[in-house]
Design a protein that fits this description.
Elements (H helix, E strand, L loop, with lengths): L4 E5 L11 H9 L4 E8 L5 E3 L20 H5 L19 H10 L5 E6 L9 H9 L7 E6 L2 H10 L4 E6 L8 E2 L3 E2 L3 E3 L1 H8 L9 E2 L5 H9 L4 E4 L2 H10 L1
Parallel strand pairs: 1-2, 1-11, 2-4, 4-5, 5-6, 6-9, 10-11
Antiparallel strand pairs: 2-3, 7-8
Helix pairs in contact: 7-8
Length: 243
């Protein structure tokens, strides 16, 4: 049986400012098998690593990512909302994240969540795939989204790309996107998985989100899930190692 992978949600989100290089570096230093990050497009069509559609929650700025240029986004403090010691954190681009990971020869998984469930960001799928194909990276890249049209478009751009279906509820856990795109990985919410797995094992491998409590981490390990997406990768790794 393959070991359950520990995937750091937005980097080590529980201990560092989410979706920053600092959070990603921490996730790698503790030994995470994978990193999950979120992307949007800026006004000047740069691929920006941030979770929300706006910068309000995680920076000292205000406004929608799609209305701001990269230069404007880069001026924002993306760390002190979390803790004063992170005042120098900046919002990274996907390019910066990839080059940082390549520099340290990271060999794990990078899961890119395309945040197209509120704004569709026309062309984002092509942009992300084209960028990811520019070089041979030491890590593997997979894509996820709550927007199934985005996953279909990713497959149209690159039929070999790996996609995972993000969902919260029954009925969203489909095995095919259209007639010709089989789904090979599900990323369900923890509550859905717990409910489901009491009665039956999901028919497709799952990486469950967001699993932070010790008892939930242990539960997912006992169910031998493909992966656990967690804000506290170090804690999850310690529990897995004892397991």
């Amino acid at each position: 049986m393959n070991q359950t992978k520990i995937i750091a949600h937005r980097g080590s989100k529980g201990t560092h400012p989410e979706n920053t290089l600092e959070a990603i570096e921490e996730a790698i230093q503790v030994g995470s098998d994978g990193i999950e990050i979120d992307v949007h497009l800026s006004l000047d069509k740069e691929i920006i690593v941030i979770h929300d559609e706006t910068v309000d929650r995680t920076t000292d700025g205000k406004g929608r990512v799609q209305d701001l240029t990269l230069m404007e986004l880069k001026k924002m403090d993306a760390g002190s909302w979390f803790s004063p010691e992170y005042t120098n954190c900046r919002i990274p681009t996907l390019k910066e994240v990839f080059y940082f990971l390549a520099e340290i020869d990271y060999k794990g998984l990078v899961n890119i969540e395309l945040k197209t469930d509120h704004y569709s960001y026309p062309g984002i799928e092509e942009k992300v795939i084209t960028f990811a194909a520019e070089k041979k990276w030491p890590f593997t890249v997979e894509y996820s989204s709550f927007n199934y049209q985005t996953l279909i478009r990713l497959k149209e751009v690159d039929s070999s790309c790996k996609i995972a279906l993000l969902f919260e509820n029954n009925g969203e856990n489909v095995a095919f996107l259209g007639s010709d795109i089989p789904v090979r990985m599900w990323h369900p919410k923890l509550s859905w998985f717990k409910n489901k797995s009491l009665f039956e094992t999901p028919e497709i491998p799952v990486r469950v989100w967001t699993v932070n409590k010790s008892k939930d981490i242990q539960y997912c390990l006992s169910k031998q899930v493909a992966g656990i997406i967690t804000d506290y990768p170090q804690k999850a790794l310690e529990i897995r190692n004892k397991w």
